[in-house]
Amino acid sequence: MPTKRDYYEVLGIARDATDEEIKEAFRRLAFKYHPDHNRDGEAEERFKEVNEAYEVLSDPDKRVAYDHFGHGGGEGLFGRGFEGFDFGGFGDIFDAFFGGAATATRQAPQRGADLGYNITITLEEAAFGCEKEINISRTENCSLCQGTGCKPGSQPSRCPNCNGTGQVRRVHQSIFGRFTSTTTCNQCHGEGRIITEPCPRCRGTGKEKCRRNILVKIPAGVNDGSQIRLVGEGEAGARGGSSGNLYVILSIKKHKFFTRDDDDILYELPVNFAQAALGAEIEVPTLDGNVKLKLPAGSQTGRAFRLKGKGVPHLHRGGRGDQLVTLRVVTPDSLTKKQRQLFQELASSLSPTKRPPRKA
């Protein structure tokens, strides 16, 4: 069994310390090592050690016995030593001493939980807005008892344990006098009332699970990952609290040939050699339908054309982005005999392409 430290050393006081000095040392050390304030692994043992030292040194008779006989405890005076002494109940002493007793309040209205729902829409729907009907499952106030939890026609009764306050006051007697603490009533759980005749539909909970169809209006210009908040469409609150919100999270399908860049639309336009070399008027798809694009003669792969105002409408403000059309000259992977002959004639009439100078 480990040797106990001297009680005066534990409290950090002199052997001739006054009662006030003993009390002040206990106050400081008990607060320092109390498990609610100190999560160190040895704090609990130090706290018990401080309590034990204070219990002995704050009592005049026990202090005299300790001064004369040490931890042997003066067996001739009290019939037993301090070893094995029961030093329980110091949690109450600490709470009363430092004003730490819990103060309970009657449970206040509680807001309901928020819900989330994922919707996948097309690029066109995201650009111009749309309406979607969704079906969700949520907790609502019971339609039979209107959320009271009581059988229709009955009323809850006042809790006899707390007299309807939701709180129970307890008086503790300690070495410092009488102290009062207030805790939540364990019979009504702070409600202040007890349901004696529960609702047959919700069994007294005041809540029931329902499925609802909700119309979601999606504004023009939303992006992938945008959220739409529907206030009050979440779970029902408790004790008269407001309902939570419903958050609709949007995902946008990948388009077969458009790519979105913020509010701009990117489109790659494939053209053949003749169109690129001679120029042409080509129909280009946009979010609003096909439009004609005049392709100048001698256009090269990678050249970009901007179609003003053909992009995605700006969210919550006027105007739209643009559509950027990038050319890609496509080399045919198969030729007819006539086409091959024409290409050969063309090739013989063209001057060789000059290569850029090689870097040293």
Distance between the termini: 86 Å
How many whole angstroms does the radius of gyration measure? 41 Å
Strand count, sense and closure of the main sheet?
Answer: 4 strands, mixed
Residue share in β-strands: 25-35%
Shape: elongated
Tally of separate helices: 9
Average predicted local confidence, pLDDT: 84
Helix content: 10-25%
Task: Please outline what is shown here.
It contains nine helices and 15 strands. It is an alpha+beta fold.
Jot down its keywords:
elongated; four-stranded mixed beta sheet; 360 residues; 9 helices; alpha+beta; single chain
Description of the structure:
By secondary structure, the protein is an alpha+beta fold. It has 9 helices and 15 strands. The chain has helices at residues 7-11, 19-33, 43-57, 60-69, 75-78, 90-98, 123-128, 273-278, 337-349, and strands spanning 115-121, 130-141, 157-158, 167-174, 177-184, 193-194, 207-218, 227-230, 246-252, 259-261, 264-271, 280-286, 289-295, 304-307, 323-329. A hairpin with a 2-residue loop joins strand 12 and strand 13 (289-295). Helix 2 (19-33) packs antiparallel against helix 3 (43-57). The protein is elongated. 19% of the residues are buried. Residues 74-81 and 83-105 have low confidence and may be disordered.
